[in-house]
Amino acid sequence: MKTQLSRRSFTRLAGATAATATFGLSACATMDKPAKANVVVIGGGFGGATAARYVRQFDPDIAVTLVEPNRSFITCPFSNYVLAGFKRMDQITHGYRSHEAAGIKVVHQMATAIDATKKTVTLDNGTVLNYDRLIVAPGIDIRWDSAQGGIQGYNEAAAERVPHAWKPGAQTLLLRRQLEAMPDGGVFILSAPANPFRCPPGPYERVAMVAHYFKQQKPRSKILVLDAKEQFSKQGLFQDGWKAVYGEMIEWVPLSKDGRVTQVVANEMTVVTEFGQRHRAAVINVVPPQMAGKIARDAGLANQTGWCAVDPTTFESSVHKGVHVIGDACIAGAMPKSGFAANSQGKVAALAAVNAINGKPTAAPTYVNTCYSLITPDYGISVADVYRVTPQGIAAAPNAGGVSPRQADAAFRVQEARYTEGWYAAMGKEIWGT
Ligand SMILES: Cc1cc2nc3c(=O)[nH]c(=O)nc-3n(C[C@H](O)[C@H](O)[C@H](O)COP(=O)(O)OP(=O)(O)OC[C@H]3O[C@@H](n4cnc5c(N)ncnc54)[C@H](O)[C@@H]3O)c2cc1C
Asked: Can you tell me which atom of ligand 1 is nearest the CA of 168?
């Protein structure tokens, strides 16, 4: 059982992380002399955009190239609020101007190949980049259909009818349009995957946000959550909140009650569960099984689980030396696949890369993660943890962190909802400068 983290001890530990992260900072800041080394970062999301920025801060004599196909980045965090209708896409979209202003070369191309022996990255347009250290942060890919260990019948074509909205952008807007078009009294199904997957509390916050929309616009509607697990993140807090605010609107079916969806029949708007039950709905959202992004898998960085094993102190790949893998794509022990975790790992990998270039050792860091979720725009809940490197890998530190209290008054929940906004604003500013 986790104990609650006092504000003082949390601040102290977060400070310790920051202190670790500034070790190795170079005093030299000239821009005109040739770079002493090249760091290439693949992926401009939570992990990669952080890492690129921090390599540059830790040692301005190192040239940094950030490879990201998109000119702007839409965050998954807060995309559930776009679905609920109280945030807009432009409020969750960030650009790379501040990276360029910091002297980082941003290349809007897809990385198509990594040669860890020659230390090169090939881009979509044929350009070959040389690196001394490579940081790989491509996020997740969906496991399509049974051939990739996904759900039978759930392929890219099916996702146009039955969105996942687990990569934000067009899929988020598609699901929002479907919810808007749904008649009052309709059924919305969300299918949640087994662990591990991107953002453990994400499906359950999404359920609350869809319920929030329904309560205002379509109060006779129902939500059925079909889950491939017995338990989920912040479960007690979510279920208390669902019940208190949305009454009987939400039904959650765990694995043991035949909650695992094994087939999607998109043209019949039907899902089939493990023991053959068929559920039809007006809108279906499948959060499918996932794996590390393609570039990491193609480069041989992922193991048989589909995720990438790394050294817990440096995030250097267990397969290829000189290559760090961070964020959702890597196996980070007890750390969840979250934006906050990817941000934390981005700083640690940046420091490890800089230290390796400068011939310095890297000390074992302390990691932190907090995940906020909303039940309503004025009802927030959270989980916080501190993580340390142990002989078994990254483990949650005992007697640190914890979840919001089950018994709390409305003022406390409002405060956590405000912290949710604060967290997002701070992350956006730190990573993308907006
Ligand atoms: C609905 C939802 C809500 C969430 N809410 C929260 C939250 O409240 N708090 C939280 O901490 N986390 C949250 N998350 C989780 C968070 O979004 C992820 O954990 C985080 O984005 C992981 O960061 P990453 O850098 O690994 O991947 P991403 O942020 O996905 O970034 C990967 C980047 O790599 C790029 N890329 C991929 N392949 C290549 C290639 N070959 N070449 C170049 N670039 C490439 C992609 O274009 C992308 O920009 C949420 C997720 C979801 C789905």
From this structure: 53
